[in-house]
Design a protein that fits this description.
heterodimer, A: alpha/beta, Elongation Factor Tu (Ef-tu), domain 3, Rossmann fold, six-stranded antiparallel sheet, 8 helices, B: seven-stranded mixed sheet
C-alpha cells in the first residue's frame, strides 16, 4: 500500500555541534536510487524522525546542488530533538519530503541578495546562500547579516568564513550587547540596528529575513525605510506541523496551509494573511 | 418492498456471521448512546432516541491508528508496513448528518497526497442511515444544506414506517448489494427538519471580514478547551503523529488544545481559547469552503450537546452579528 506517512531511511554521515544546544546532521538515503535521484529546491523542508521519539519539521539546509546527501539543523528543545541530539555517524533516522514551496531563486536572478538571519535561523538561509554562490554569475552583490545572542550561539560560523572568501560578498556578524567575548571582532548590536547602520544599498535587491518574531518585527521597518517593496522581502514561516501534507490541520495561518502553500512567503503575501502564525 | 425491523436485525446478524464488522447506535451505559462496534444485532438501537453522542467517523478514521511499525536492531532499523486490509464494515442506523461526513472529508484526505488508510477504510464501509423523525434545538442540518433524510454519504436510507418496518431507498451499488431486490419504489415524504437557523453564505462572509473582531473574545471566552466538540464531531479530522511501542501512530487531536500549535520556541500562534475557537469556526465555515467547496459541518449539533460550557457551532454562529 502506498503510505504517504512512511519515511525514507537515512544514514547519518556526519554530525556537527555548533553551540551547546545546536547541531546539524548530514544524512544520506539508504536507498541507492533515491541517493542518486532525490532532488529538492532550496527553501523546502522535511519531516525528520528519530525512531522511538517521533517526527519534527526542519528546513533542508544544504544546497539543492549537493547530491547524495542533505543537511538539517536543530536546537535541542523537546522529545524528538533530544533523541536526535544523540545520533552519531552510522545511525539511522527517518525522512519524509521534500515538502512545501521554495525560494524563487530564478526570479531573484540579476538582483542583489540581502540575507538577514538571527540565531537558529541561519540554516534555512544557508541553503539559499550556497545555492547563490554556486550560481554566482546569476546574482549581484550578496550581503549576509547574521546575529545571535552571544558569540557561542552563532551557528555555521565556518560557512560564514567561507562565504566571505567569495567575490562581492559582504558578511556582517553581530551579537547582542553583552554577548561579545574579549576577542570578538564582529559588530555588537541587534540584527535590525546593525543592518541599518551598515548602509547596504537597497537598489535592485531582494531580502530574505528569517529569525525570531521580534527580529523580524524590527527588521521590516528598516527595509521599508531603505525603500524596499514588500514583494521583494521574503521569509520562511515555521508553524508547527505534524503531517507536512495538508491533512493534520494545525499549520494554517488563516486560510493558508503553511506546509503546502508555504513555508516561503513574500512580505506582500504575509500582509494578506491574518496574524495567525 | 419495505423491511421489518426483525429482518433488518437478521440481515445484520448474517453480516456478522460472515466475520464482518458491524457498527451502529448502542446503549453503552445508562443515559449514553454511542456508535459502537456491535457483537450482536440485538444490541442495535434503531429508534427512541435523537442521535448518538459521538459520530461514525471512527469507522473510517480511528482515533488511534498504526501508520507503520519499526524494528530497531543496534544501528539497523527496519520499517514494517502494516498489512492494511480494513475489515468490511457495515454502519447501520447512522444519522444522515453522520454519513455526510465521509464525502465531505474525501477531498482533504486526497489533497495531492492520497491517504490510503482513509481511502481503503472508506471503500470497505457500507453506510445505511435512518432518516430522522425528530430533532432537537441543537440540530441544524438544514442550515448547512442537509436534511433529515439527506442521502449524502449513505449507501441506503431507511425510512421508519411506524409499524417496525422501514422503507428502503437504495442510493449506491453497495446499498443494492446489501438489500438486493428490496428497493422501494417510493418512500414517505421527508420528515420536517429543524428550522434553518442561519444563512451559511453570510456566515462565510462574516468570517472572511472578521478574523480580528471583539466578537471572538466576547462569544467564546467561556471555552474550557476540553476538545469534546472536536472528538464528537463527524468532520473534525485533525490528528497528531507520535511514536508509541515501536510504531508510528496517528491519534485524533483537536484545535482547542493549547499544545496543538505550540512552537518549540515557546511561541504559540493561537495562545488563547478565543483564538482556538476562531480557528474552529473559520476552518469549518470559511477555510474548508475556500479550499474544497464544502462546509466542514453537518449540523448534527454534537458540539453543543457535548459542550460543558454551552458553546458549540450553533451557539457561536447565532451569537455572531449578521450570522
Amino acid at each position: 500500500m502506498d503510505n504517504v506517512y512512511k519515511p525514507h531511511l537515512m544514514t547519518v554521515l556526519e554530525v556537527r555541534r555548533h553551540t551547546p544546544d545546536v547541531k546539524s546532521v548530514r544524512v544520506t538515503f539508504q536507498d541507492e536510487a533515491l541517493r542518486e535521484n532525490f532532488s529538492f529546491r532550496v527553501g523546502q523542508f522535511g519531516i525528520f524522525s528519530a525512531f522511538g521519539a517521533g517526527e519534527s519539521t526542519f528546513n533542508i539546509c544544504s544546497s539543492s546542488n549537493w547530491r547524495g546527501y542533505l543537511d538539517f539543523c536543530f536546537r535541542k528543545t523537546g522529545r524528538v530533538t533530544e533523541a536526535l541530539w544523540g545520533v552519531e555517524e552510522g545511525d539511522v533516522i527517518g525522512f519524509r519530503g521534500p515538502y512545501g514551496n521554495w525560494y524563487p531563486m530564478e526570479q531573484w536572478e540579476g538582483k542583489n541578495l540581502i540575507f538577514l538571519g538571527g540565531g537558529i535561523a541561519m540554516p534555512p538561509i544557508r541553503c539559499a546562500i550556497w545555492y547563490a554562490l554556486e550560481n554566482r554569475a546569476r546574482y549581484g552583490d550578496i550581503t549576509i547579516v547574521y546575529g545571535a545572542r552571544t558569540v557561542k550561539d552563532l551557528v555555521f560560523t565556518s560557512d560564514l568564513d567561507e562565504w566571505e572568501q567569495h567575490e562581492r560578498v559582504r558578511v556582517i556578524r553581530c551579537v547582542d550587547p553583552g554577548g561579545e567575548t574579549p576577542d570578538w571582532t564582529g559588530e555588537i548590536g541587534f540584527v535590525p540596528h546593525v543592518f541599518e547602520r551598515s548602509a547596504v544599498p537597497a537598489e535592485n535587491s531582494v531580502a530574505l529575513v528569517i529569525g525570531p518574531p521580534v527580529m523580524i518585527k524590527f527588521t521590516l521597518p528598516v527595509l521599508d525605510r531603505m525603500g524596499m517593496r514588500p514583494g521583494d522581502i521574503y521569509t520562511s514561516l515555521e508553524n508547527r506541523m505534524k503531517c507536512g501534507i495538508g491533512k493534520c490541520g494545525r499549520c494554517n495561518a488563516g486560510g493558508c496551509y503553511v506546509c503546502k502553500e508555504g513555508p516561503v512567503f513574500s512580505l506582500e503575501q504575509l500582509q494578506k494573511l491574518p496574524q495567525d502564525y | 418492498m419495505s423491511i421489518s425491523k426483525q429482518d433488518l436485525l437478521q440481515l445484520a446478524d448474517g453480516w456478522l456471521a460472515q466475520g464482518k464488522q458491524l457498527i451502529g447506535p448502542k446503549r453503552v451505559k445508562d443515559g449514553l448512546i454511542q456508535y459502537a462496534r456491535l457483537e450482536k444485532a440485538s444490541d442495535l438501537l434503531l429508534d427512541g432516541f435523537l442521535r448518538p453522542a459521538n459520530s461514525i467517523k471512527e469507522a473510517v478514521f480511528p482515533r488511534h491508528e498504526v501508520l507503520y511499525r519499526y524494528r530497531v536492531d543496534g544501528k539497523r532499523i527496519e520499517l514494517i508496513d502494516e498489512e492494511f486490509t480494513p475489515p468490511e464494515t457495515l454502519v447501520l442506523g447512522a444519522r444522515p448528518c453522520d454519513a455526510a461526513a465521509f464525502p465531505i472529508l474525501d477531498p482533504l484526505f486526497n489533497w495531492d497526497y492520497r491517504d490510503e488508510f482513509w481511502n481503503r477504510r472508506r471503500a470497505a464501509a457500507t453506510v445505511v442511515t435512518v432518516a430522522c423523525e425528530t430533532h432537537d434545538e441543537h440540530c441544524f442540518c438544514t442550515s448547512v444544506g442537509l436534511a433529515p433524510d439527506a442521502a449524502r454519504g449513505a449507501d441506503a436510507v431507511l425510512y421508519p414506517l411506524g409499524d417496525a418496518h422501514f422503507a428502503i431507498r437504495q442510493v449506491t451499488a453497495r446499498g443494492e448489494a446489501l438489500f438486493g431486490q428490496r428497493q422501494d419504489e417510493d418512500w414517505p415524504p421527508a420528515p420536517p427538519g429543524p428550522p434553518v437557523r442561519f444563512d451559511s453564505e453570510r456566515v462565510t462572509s462574516f468570517l472572511a471580514a472578521n478574523f480580528e473582531s471583539p466578537f471572538w473574545r466576547a462569544a467564546t471566552l467561556s471555552c474550557l478547551g476540553c476538545g469534546a466538540c472536536a472528538y464528537n464531531c463527524p468532520v473534525c479530522h485533525c490528528f497528531d503523529i507520535i511514536d508509541e511501542k515501536k510504531a508510528r501512530v496517528r491519534n485524533w487531536d483537536a484545535c482547542q488544545f493549547g499544545l496543538f500549535t505550540l512552537h518549540a520556541s515557546g511561541h504559540n500562534p493561537r495562545n488563547t481559547q478565543p483564538e482556538r475557537q476562531r480557528q474552529r469556526l473559520q476552518h469549518k465555515f470559511r477555510i474548508y469552503r475556500e479550499k474544497f467547496g464544502e462546509i466542514l459541518c453537518t449540523g448534527c449539533g454534537n458540539c453543543t450537546r457535548n459542550c460543558p460550557a454551552g458553546l458549540g457551532v450553533l451557539n457561536v454562529l447565532e451569537a455572531m452579528p449578521h450570522g
